[in-house]
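User: Sequence in, structure out. Go.
Assistant: Echoing your sequence, followed by the structure tokens.
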Amino acid sequence: MNRKLLILALLMLSSMLCLGENSAERTKRDFQQLGLPIYEGNTTRILPTGEIKFRDLFEAVEKAEKYILMDYFKFQQDSICGALLEILRRKVQQGVEVKIIFDSFGNKSSDLPLSDTLQTRIRESGIEIAAFDPVRFPWINHLMHRDHHKIAIIDGKTVYTGGMNVADYYLHGKPKVGKWRDMHIRMEGPIVQAYEELFWKMWHKEQPPSPLPRKGECLPSLMGGVGGGSVAFASRWPKETPKIMRQTYSIAIDNADHLVQIVNPYAMLFGEVRAALRRALERGVRVQFMVSTKSDGKVNDDVIGLEMRKLMKRGAEVYYFGDGFHHSKVMMIDSLFCTVGTTNLDARSLCFDYEVNAFIFSPATTHELQQIFYDDIEKSSTLLTPEVWKERFPLRRRIRSRILSISKRFL
């Protein structure tokens, strides 16, 4: 029996053993066996644009009564960051505790990094701010495991997370790519505790030990939102859970019965995730993948293009989003559950950085993401075909993509 037939036989046997369970139930069970915590009784709201996300976040920050915790890959020194800092200064004057973490490398690689002068003024205002793993000589020691989180926690009751940093290009775009599309979520309920514990773990990596932090009440939301129900919490900590993102994505895709839908900006794919997508296609699962026509790096474009062509040849529907750069990191399975988080589908996120994703077992939330996905297909996307591939990737780019595809996985 060849390898493909063996894989199909094993998958059929697995399906027979799990007869009666849908993909969401199987995935929850597999996550629990993996040791992933699952939190019940949450509410979730999708924040599909930068304008909606920052308006919602600013309103929540204004209402904070006890503390505000923020952990972002980068705070860009621009109008949005300035507006946020002004609110945070006022909250400190009202007695609210404010702590901020930013990634040192993320800041240095920003178009508008937080200056030392501004950081000093922030501290003088009473806001506690810490750079994660400052990049110092020898610099190579600090390039591997970066803090790629995007988290804001208000009073232990509300958490914001997803793909957006604190920067105004989420509202105004960038000259090179035009609009900058991204996705965020707001969650309330017991899941907030998991994000808060992650924040304190990151904070204590960079700060001296302090008294135990206060815990939020994690009360159900009185604000709008759809049922998030069960939420699994996946946090990649390089030395503790180095494989968790590869495992969770692979488990979810392997459990899909009929539909996998993914939007990801850096879909250079890697090992287990690529293999899981191929297995899904082999057993007849419909795979729809969305990447961007415009990107923030030509090398990324070429390597992603090669991976998308391979998926297309195996039967996947690949859509190139044309209305700007789609930076969202979401996946929907069988219209039953989804994931929103910080994880890119490249070696950087899957094998090196600190990442965090929420797997939301809610048809309502999943359907909302799907509607956005279908709208993007209808209004702004082009289906990848052999003819589109040849037009988009002339010979020189095809050669370059093959040369770079191996080395890029380890950058």
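User: And one key feature?
Assistant: DSSP finds 15 helices and 17 strands in the chain.
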